[in-house]
Amino acid sequence: MDYEARRRLQDSFIVDNQSVKNKDGGLQLSDETVPTFDNVVSGNKVEDNAVDCGMTIVSHVANHGTYDNTISNNWSVGNGAAGIMLDTPVPGGIVSNNTVTNNYVEYNNLGGIGLHTHAPGSIVNGNTIEKLGCGQQGGSASNESTSRY
Fold first, then answer.
1. What is the gyration radius of the CA atoms in the chain, in angstroms?
2. Could you give the CA distance from residue 9 to residue 4 in angstroms, rounded to a whole number?
3. pTM, rounded to two decimals
């Protein structure tokens, strides 16, 4: 892998996977070592993951960022925390301009979709959440509204 490729995670696809009954969470898209952007997470099933979120879109490194990703057509049911979480626990962490569309979430312990910051100076904004199908944690079976956060 060349140096430039190691400096970023972009233009990748996480498609048609199953993450079921893990001890922790399901799928995570993160900026652990490089900024993470322009990725597609679609058609995945994350279910009954014990203690964490079904899908986590997160920034763990200040000024890297997890942004401009598309999270679509996924199934997230019965997870220990949120069905899909967009968050950053660090000052300077950035989770922005992601699109979460046409996902189904139900029976997750912290609700369907979560937006969360843990520290001053962290940024979670410009994200679009639309066409969400919700079960028992609240909301309606088909929500055609679009929200920007």
1. 14
2. 10
3. 0.86
